Amino acid sequence: MTEYDLVIKGGRVASTEGVAAMDVAIQDGLIAALGRELQGRSTIDAAGKLLLPGGVDAHCHIEQLSGGGLMNADTFESATRSAAFGGTTTVISFAAQHRGDRLGDVVENYARLAAAGAVIDYAFHLWISDPTPETLEQDLPRLIEAGHRSIKIFMTYDRVRLLDEQILDVMMVARKYGAMICAHAENHGMIKWMADRLVARGYVAPKYHGVSHPRVCEIEAFERLIRFSQLLDQPIMLFHVSTAEGAAVIRRARGEGIKVFAETCPQYLFLTAQDLDRPGLEGAKWMCSPPPRATSDQEALWRGLELGDLQVVSSDHAPYRFDESGKLAAGANPDFKQIANGLPGLETRLPLLFDAMVSQGRSSLEKFVELTATAPAKIYGLHPRKGAIAVGADADVVVWDPDREVVLTDDGLHDNVGYNPFAGRRLKGWPETVLRRGDTILADGTLKAAPGSGRLQLRGCAPSMRPTGRLSPEFDPGSNFGAQLL
Residue 451: CB partners within 8 Å, gap ≥ 6? Predict the structure, then answer.
């Protein structure tokens, strides 16, 4: 009988297809076999536990300068440490280009920071704020072909947003070279007009941040970007869906055959606009963009996840401390326009979702695995290495205690933020032991991975990133009088 490097024995392995009692054998950092009575030179006893694929968090801001020039609170070491404690073994963060930056230099700088600090595996979305000819014709094609297969664009925020024509330019490059377009899609004019009007009339508290991002600004931007996608036959991912109407727009577009993917985040499933209504500036801790909405939106988003209209739940980890280095950088009495947007979420994403979906029975363990690991790995080109416990995959495995109960506290996380927007919640189900490529990086409440032991994950062109082949008539030489536009 083959003796493997390590066997995790006695657990129940969860996949998108079901749950089965079996051992997991690991050899040379890969899953080598699944079965019964497997033998290993080392073993982990997982009796009574679940064996889940390491989480894939595809939307994280790490060691990143914001569009407003503020560095967030987490380094790659602190952010990925926090991720590991929450059962996540792969993150996709941003290589954030600001105007005047050379995109290739940006990626090199972020890769150097991650190589020095990350304790889990990582990839990058290419954040485009300056689509110069140099960016579009040289750097972006080269970086896509090197394996950076996703691009982030903004439709709002003065210093980073792209105009419609620029968005189309970036989308055309993605189409030609094989990459996913990911978008923060809100209508810039509506937000700016509403925010200026609120501040001019003295409505400056954090709770008015939500009012400044009207629901319709999400709906309009979704519709606009979806029609860009339809025109160019270029797949898109809509980030952080927050409204029932936004989910409905996506459902209709997918029904039309447009290649649209979408995510939501725990803040839109578990928080509402009322969480910002707190004394003084306390509500700033719950400020994010788009803002949390209403309980009716929560229900619509849960329904969208169950139906497959939304395919992924990411954290949108955007960490800012509640002090002068972060949320209060503009002084002791900022208006909501001067407060950094974002919440910590890398560590709590999986426990929050497991408690709601599995422990409380809102959904199923299979759906939990799909939304948090398998689907993001497939959509972003990390599969089959990541996102599933399968022979040949990286041995990213979480031994999960389904019965452990934990009360979240402000000082219980392992990031560098100093507060927890979900503090006070009692959750059932918690990651106990975490393996990354066969190495035990977390056990007995102790991190065992060295900074820099995570690896960059370069990606191929996944099926999700490929055009459908259904050309708009304007791009079809058979109906546009022979014009060659692609």
Answer: 76, 77, 116, 117, 118, 119
